[in-house]
Each structure stands twice: as structure tokens, then as C-alpha cells.
Write a structure and sequence with these properties.
It is built from 13 helices and no strands. By secondary structure, it is an all-alpha fold. One of its GO terms (biological process) is transmembrane transport. Keywords: Cell membrane, Membrane, Transmembrane, Transmembrane helix, Transport.
């Protein structure tokens, strides 16, 4: 009997993955970025959260290869004297956590609404009209409204303490209709198939049919959407930080680092914005490229012989 590892090695999934250089190079880069982000406490030369390691006199130092650079700070420092390399590693961790957390919330809400709407006709009209109303507002409009409201209610100081979970909540609530519409369409197609009719005939409950039989057959498009939505959520966090409604400078994310350095870019301190911007672009790009490969792999119309 073959082991799981042997079956995996002989699977079309691994065969397809290794035949696509864009997929495995993107995956390798993503793994390096994720390891760097979550290994920041070990890898990073400095801790940007520890004020004892920060000296304001070191602010706006250029990268080490510049004549005025300092070997202690390979990529220079920001306006607060924090090493850019360390701050970007910690900031990337926050950006990834917000992206993954927001997508998890989107997927949970969207899958739940899509299942109920697609399988229970009485709920379909109401839930889809709610989704339509939600889609009529842009993500940033909802985020700006909720973020500004929380800042007014709790004050800027208290807002900083809940910024990360609040961003997850804001971005998650703003994007769930995409999942709901996709899952609903899949459920409408699945509910007409023989296995669902057979489950009804033997007396299984609607709840059991939805969650144990229909849901597993609707997860392929959800997986494809999720890979794209993680990148979108990271970009949304960066955009909100640029508008002053994202992560505060005391808890750096890639978006807040770009924002913090934007006012210094024309004074010559280009590295404060450019380096986090490059990392953000690379992170989003490799996630999108992997999402494209996953979409192609799960596409039943493509030949898999």
C-alpha cells in the first residue's frame, strides 16, 4: 500500500506545480517572505517595539552603501530612528495577519450566506438584496466610515490598541458578498444533482445536506477567490494606512511605513517609502501569481491528462 507521501509525489497537483516555473518561484519567494515576517523576533537585527534600542539621532540614515550610511542599519532608518530592515519584517507580519484574518472573516460570512441563500429559496431574495446593497458601497467608503467612527468614539490613543483586529473586521465585512455570490451559484448547480436528491430521499436534514454534502463541492472556487482576496486585503490595509485609518506608526505595517516615509521622499529620504513599497508589491505579486496557478489547476476545462 502506498504511503501518503508516495501518492503526493505521484499526484497531478505536484506534477503541475513543478512544471510551472512561475508557480514554484512565486511559492519560494512567498515562503521566504513569510519566514522573514514571522521569524522577525529572531531574524531582525533590532526590535522596533523596544524603545531602548531606538535612538532619534539615528533617524533618516541612508542605506549602508551610501557614504553617510551606517553598517548597523543595512537598509537605513526611518524618521523615528528604527532600522528599515527590522521594521519591514515586523510590519510585513502585521500586513499578512490582517490579510489572512480579513479573508477568513470574508470566507466565513460569504460561505454561510451563500449556502443558505442557494439552498433555502425563502432566504435567497433577502440575502442577495443585502449583498447587492453591500456591493453598492466601495470597500474604502465602508472602511473610512467605520474607522473614523471608532477613532471618534474611542480616541486615537485607544484606536491604536485595537487597530489590527478592527482592520480585519472592516475589510472582512466589506468584501464578503463576493464569496456569497460565488458559493450561491455553486450551490444552485449542486442542489440539482443526483447525490443531493438521494440524500433528501433517505431523510437527511437540510443542515446535514448543506454542510456535509454540498459545501465540500463548492470549496474550489472559494479557494481561488481566497488567494486573490488575501492580496486585495493587504492592499486595502496599505491604502487605509495611507489615508490615516490603518495601522499607527507605533505598530508598523507595510502600509503605515509607506505612509510615514511619503512626506520625506522629496527631501532625499527615499528609502523610507521605496523599500516597504517594493516589499509590498513583491508580496502581493507572488500571492496573485500563485492564485492564478491555483485557478488554472482547479479549472475542469483544462486538460489534466
Amino acid at each position: 500500500m502506498r504511503s501518503r507521501w508516495q501518492r503526493f509525489r505521484e499526484s497531478y497537483f505536484l506534477y503541475s506545480f513543478l512544471r510551472d516555473p512561475v508557480a514554484y518561484v512565486s511559492f519560494a519567494i512567498l515562503v521566504i517572505l513569510v519566514i522573514g515576517a514571522f521569524g522577525a523576533p529572531i531574524i531582525a537585527p533590532h526590535n522596533p517595539y523596544d524603545p531602548t534600542t531606538i535612538d532619534i539621532l539615528d533617524s533618516e540614515l541612508p542605506p549602508f552603501w551610501s557614504p553617510e550610511g551606517d553598517a548597523r542599519f543595512l537598509l537605513g532608518t526611518d524618521d523615528m530612528g528604527r532600522g528599515m530592515l527590522s521594521t519591514m519584517l515586523y510590519g510585513m507580519r502585521i500586513s499578512i495577519l490582517i490579510g489572512v484574518g480579513a479573508v477568513a472573516l470574508q470566507a466565513f460570512l460569504g460561505v454561510l450566506v451563500g449556502l443558505l441563500s442557494g439552498y433555502i429559496k425563502k432566504l435567497d431574495t433577502v440575502m442577495m438584496r443585502i449583498a447587492d446593497v453591500q456591493l453598492s458601497f466601495s470597500t474604502y467608503m465602508i472602511a473610512i466610515f467605520i474607522g473614523a467612527t471608532f477613532q471618534t468614539m474611542f480616541g486615537v490613543a485607544n484606536y491604536e490598541k485595537i487597530a489590527a483586529p478592527l482592520l480585519i473586521l472592516i475589510i472582512g465585512l466589506a468584501e464578503w458578498p463576493q464569496y456569497a455570490r460565488t458559493v450561491r451559484a455553486s450551490v444552485l448547480a449542486e442542489r440539482k444533482k443526483e447525490y443531493v436528491e438521494a440524500a433528501r430521499i433517505i431523510g437527511l436534514s437540510k443542515t446535514r445536506i448543506m454542510w456535509r454534502h454540498i459545501l465540500p463541492n463548492t470549496l474550489s472556487p472559494v479557494l481561488v477567490i481566497s488567494t486573490v482576496q488575501v492580496a486585495n486585503a493587504i492592499m486595502s490595509e496599505a491604502a487605509l494606512s495611507f489615508l490615516g485609518l490603518g495601522m499607527p506608526q507605533s505598530q508598523p505595517s507595510l502600509g503605515s511605513l509607506i505612509t510615514a516615509g511619503f512626506e520625506y521622499i522629496f527631501s532625499g529620504s527615499w528609502w523610507i517609502t521605496i523599500f516597504p513599497g517594493i516589499v509590498l508589491v513583491v508580496l502581493v505579486l507572488v500571492i496573485n501569481l500563485l492564485g492564478d496557478w491555483v485557478r488554472d489547476y482547479l479549472n475542469p476545462k483544462l486538460y489534466k491528462g
